[in-house]
Amino acid sequence: xxxxVADDDIHVRSxxxxxxxxxxxxxxxxxxxxxxxxxKQVTETPACVVLVDWELPGLRHNGIVSKLRATIxxxxxxxxxxxxxxxxxxxxxxxxxxxxxxxTPETLMATIxxxxxxxxxxx
Length: 123
Prior knowledge:
The chain is an alpha/beta fold. It is built from five helices and five strands; from the N terminus they run E-H-E-H-E-H-E-H-E-H. It has helices at 10-21, 35-44, 64-71, 86-92, 105-117, and strands spanning 2-6, 27-32, 49-53, 76-81, 97-100.
């Protein structure tokens, strides 16, 4: 499973990297700290799943979710947030999944696996 992580907080990215690197079937294909970096990375290095901070500056503005969808339509977008109530917003915006930053590693992996199973591998 090819995963791209987009979060402007280095601590969150580091923690996700540590968790994901323990999984033998997960390949972290990139990390982004801004929406511009994210758009560039999904074009250059497609992923099965993008874990994207729901609070990433600019994400909810300027049609970024639509641009991501247009770039790689089969890519799955999973929102990360420290606010459980943000799940409804993320679903309305068209994201495929939601993970609260306080969820367990098992929940994180189950969500990623479920999303990867719904799409074909990216080249």
